[in-house]
């Protein structure tokens, strides 16, 4: 019964936010801030309107669908042709800055949480490495910020979750194998099959699905209304196709998006329309679930070390690797600092954390790890949300100086 009440509350939240979303935007109040805040308000930490377990079927299904669509959309909206022309800065961020961030996060974790096992520390660093450009929407949408900077932040956000995910499932498999005392070879073979078969299945679905859509558009067989519904069907089809061949459905969704979005400009446009409407709605509901279900479960485990790590994760552990990897790129220090700050932790970290909690069955034994994720994301939602437009304005004035 409580799940029906929660669905009703979510519907009311969506309706209320929809009415005043433009008004709130004037005060730099974003959708993720509103949905997370209202989730907290109705949660046991607030009005205690109802309770929702993070391992409930409703949460599991929502998380899986949301992650499938996020990975699919992020990959699809990457213009590989454009990326080939200006790949150097994103490549530095993804192939130098990202590994340094993971290593730095793991080392910092060992210092702050000396009793936490190495694999748990690595898992924590991986969950908190992907960025979510949507939390600083003004930075990636406002033309006062140079196009190259906006594109760089978008590309990093779109690709880092897809790069991190195979490593994440490898670490989760290793931890699970240790818990269940499985032979090392078993989980390594399992992970290899997940990645390879998942990638192949996704690429096939994405390519064939996009080609079929182009053919149908050319022959005028498709009704306009259904063009934006194709992405969700392709993403879900890729997910389940991979599962059938023992691949990972989430990796399949990412590769399906990568192929579908780069098959034609028309297909990418429809995916973008979908991501900005139906996709964004599901993401906002995930932020509500984060505030409503995930934060209350981990709140009691927030301690001084957790706060220290969360603050470091949003500042030094993110910004220093980015600045280091951009040295020698001909960018000035203000641009490097601007890109370094706008690495918000949001939907990918939330969905990864919920997925890991589901894989482990609960957060028991990993309370500190999930408390760090909770606090880091919570702080990021508001810190990056409020700072996006003011810092974009400040940065644009700086670069316009003679």
From TrEMBL:
Protein's cellular compartments: Cell membrane
UniProt keyword Transport present: yes
Keywords for the protein's UniProt record, in alphabetical order: Antiport, Ion transport, Membrane, Transmembrane, Transmembrane helix, Transport
Stored InterPro entries: Cation/H_exchanger_TM
Every Cation/H+ exchanger transmembrane domain range: 14-392
Any Pfam family hit: Na_H_Exchanger
Spans through the membrane: 6-25, 32-50, 56-81, 93-113, 119-140, 161-181, 187-208, 229-261, 281-299, 306-329, 335-357, 369-387
Membrane topology type: Multi-pass membrane protein
UniProt key word Membrane: yes
Signal peptide segment: none
Protein name per Swiss-Prot or TrEMBL: Cation:proton antiporter
Species assigned in the record: Vibrio plantisponsor
